[in-house]
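Retro notes (design track)

What went well: tokenization of the new backbones is finally stable.
What didn't: we kept losing track of which sequence belonged to which structure.
Fix going forward: every design gets posted as structure first, then sequence, in one message. First example under the new rule, 247 residues:
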């Protein structure tokens, strides 16, 4: 697990940006990891026409992305009603961020969802019984039903500009989101996804499988951008940026 000193240095690095400093004091969605992630993203790609923020939670990533990419349209997707309510409050007044109350996957309709007391861990997959990393020890869950859509069903609704980034923070459902992209995948220039190095959720595909899957879709790895540490400081997840290969 990340140490307090490391957290402090990460926060100080983020707060060097004046707009981030303002968000630190004014926004309930401020997240140091999301700001660090977005800083790293900016270093590799200076601009985006649009960002699809799939797995938005309460807007942590959207807030940071809106600061570092102020001219970018951001479309945030969050299925849980209580998290979505917080998301809409946190993006109030930010005209370039639009929110959708739905999960994204490989089907259209409804799916069973496990609502975790720590909402960022909520998923359509259950937490693996062997996972005892910090925060994942939170086992207070309730089952609910949420709406789900495919990205290719939105292709005529969203007037996205390129280059287009698909950001995935979907707790083990990355493959389903990509499978549901269909022909819309041709418009996605970059993929930023959180991939797991150990099984955190039941039947979750791990890094090697997902890396091969994304490569076969026509993308190459640009760089790892952020490491999430678990028990005893072990790296358990990595946020990875992929770019479309030009063949």
């Amino acid at each position: 697990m990340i140490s307090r000193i490391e957290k402090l240095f990460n926060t100080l690095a983020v707060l060097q940006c004046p707009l981030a400093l303002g968000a630190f004091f004014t926004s309930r969605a401020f997240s140091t990891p999301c700001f660090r992630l977005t800083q790293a993203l900016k270093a590799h790609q200076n601009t985006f026409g649009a960002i699809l923020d799939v797995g938005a939670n309460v807007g942590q990533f959207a807030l940071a992305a809106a600061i570092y990419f102020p001219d970018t349209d951001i479309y945030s997707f969050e299925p849980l009603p209580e998290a979505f309510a917080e998301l809409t409050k946190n993006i109030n007044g930010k005209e370039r961020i639009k929110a959708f109350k739905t999960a994204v996957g490989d089907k259209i309709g409804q799916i069973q969802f496990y609502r975790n007391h720590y909402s960022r861990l909520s998923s359509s997959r259950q937490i693996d019984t062997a996972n005892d990393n910090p925060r994942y020890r939170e086992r207070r869950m309730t089952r609910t039903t949420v709406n789900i859509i495919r990205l290719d069903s939105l292709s005529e609704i969203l007037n996205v500009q390129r280059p287009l980034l698909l950001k995935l923070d979907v707790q083990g459902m990355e493959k389903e989101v990509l499978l549901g992209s269909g022909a819309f995948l041709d418009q996605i220039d970059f993929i930023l996804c959180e991939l797991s190095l150990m099984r955190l959720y039941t039947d979750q595909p791990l890094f090697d499988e997902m890396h091969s899957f994304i490569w076969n879709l026509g993308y190459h790895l640009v760089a790892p951008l952020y490491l999430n540490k678990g028990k005893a400081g072990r790296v358990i997840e990595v946020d990875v940026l992929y770019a479309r290969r030009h063949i």
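Added context from the reviewer: The domain at 4-244 is CATH 3.40.50.150 (Rossmann fold).
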